Every structure is written in C-alpha cells, then in structure tokens.
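Re: that chain you flagged

S.,

Sorry for the slow reply, it's been a week of failed gels. I finally had a moment to sit down with the sequence you sent. For the record, here it is as I used it:
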Amino acid sequence: LHSLRRRQRQMCIRDRDFSLIGILSKLSGILADNKIGILAVSTFNTDYFLVKDADFEESLAVLLNAGYTMI
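Prediction finished late last night. Pasting the structure tokens below so you have them in one place:
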C-alpha cells in the first residue's frame, strides 16, 4: 500500500500501484472478516479506503498481520 493518512474521524488508505489487481476486493474482504466496515472510493488512478477512527488501530493491526506494509 502506498500511503496512510489519519484524520480526526477517519483513516484513509490509498493504493496507487496499478499492478495490485484485486486489492479492493482483498482489503475489503480482510477487514470484513474482522467486522471492520469501510467506505471504498475508486478513481482512475487510485483506490481510497475510509475506516472509522474507532476502528483505526484494529484495522491497521489486521492489515499488518495479513502481510501488508504501510508507508
């Protein structure tokens, strides 16, 4: 994953690597399996995953545990 931003009430994970086919499906599935809801927004050149602030720590731990790296 390319970047991670945290604001007062949301976490935004942004993917800018076109070679990551199915990343939206993979990340949303991992988070859904852990009962973490997301709002996904896709554009031509990136995907954004918004997570509630209350779920920030858990979602970060879940994704790191799944082998993803945050930069």
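What I noticed first: DSSP finds two helices and four strands in the chain.

Talk soon,
D.
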